[in-house]
């Protein structure tokens, strides 16, 4: 009934690119919207390898004013980290969270995120992909 999906590999260099704008370019590749056979109910996307993620740019006062909240489930358990603290602990996490937030909120979201490969430097292990 359904034919096999042809999955390509895209390599993107994040050096000097704005984090949110880069994320908005990655999401259509992960969803498969660039393909003429796109179907929203199927996972048609490609693999995306992003290098130099640690060298992406954050504009304005975002480093100190942007906050990522979480709640422990207990009363008064709301805590946050700023973007600067998040980058210090894991430089890949801001771009991963930006892409995750831009993907459609459905059952295919986790499958699409598994095809996103992030690397802080220029080296990666996906050299010769078909």
TrEMBL record:
Q: Which InterPro entries match?
A: Ribosomal_uL13 (IPR005822), Ribosomal_uL13_bac-type (IPR005823), Ribosomal_uL13_CS (IPR023563), Ribosomal_uL13_sf (IPR036899)
SUPFAM superfamilies on file? Ribosomal protein L13
**Gene Ontology biological-process entries:** negative regulation of translation; translation
User: GO molecular function of the protein, one example?
Assistant: structural constituent of ribosome
Source organism superkingdom: Eukaryota
Alphabetically list the UniProt keywords.
Ribonucleoprotein, Ribosomal protein
What GO cellular component entries does it have? ribonucleoprotein complex; ribosome
Q: Which HAMAP family match?
A: Ribosomal_uL13
Q: Per the similarity annotation, which family is this?
A: Belongs to the universal ribosomal protein uL13 family.
This chain belongs to the protein called 50S ribosomal protein L13
